[in-house]
Amino acid sequence: MKLMIGAAMMAASLYAYPAHAQEWSDDQADVWGAVSAYWEAHVDGNTWHEAMTDGSYGWGGQSLLPRSREQMASFSRVFGAEGEVLHYQLDPLAITVHGDTALVHYMANIIETNHKGEREANVERCSDTMVREDGEWKFLGWGCADMGGDD
To answer: How many domains does the chain have?
Structure first.
């Protein structure tokens, strides 16, 4: 039931923003390309800390508190990958770029197996703050809120 509600919420939010991708500037498209590439490279390996700049924090959908880059690396060494992402879809909602800083809002729909091998579907609402360092976009911070899924 939660999956249906989450999917309906995502569809409604996407309906409200149908033309944004067609109106993006080169900078906005570049930032979205970086976010998408980082998801592809890190979605399954617990290596997100590699995409973060020094002094950055991330707040995952199921985390109680934000974690620093160092804390995320430590958790990855101890726990490793706890499941497998079977499929994911990212849907951008809004992107703003000011110089070497960008804010990216999007929805992430994730189908995965958990540590028990059971299939789960989750929808997360994400906001990423990106900074450009040496010509490359990196995460300064992010927050993803779990919007629910199938329990």
So the answer is: 1
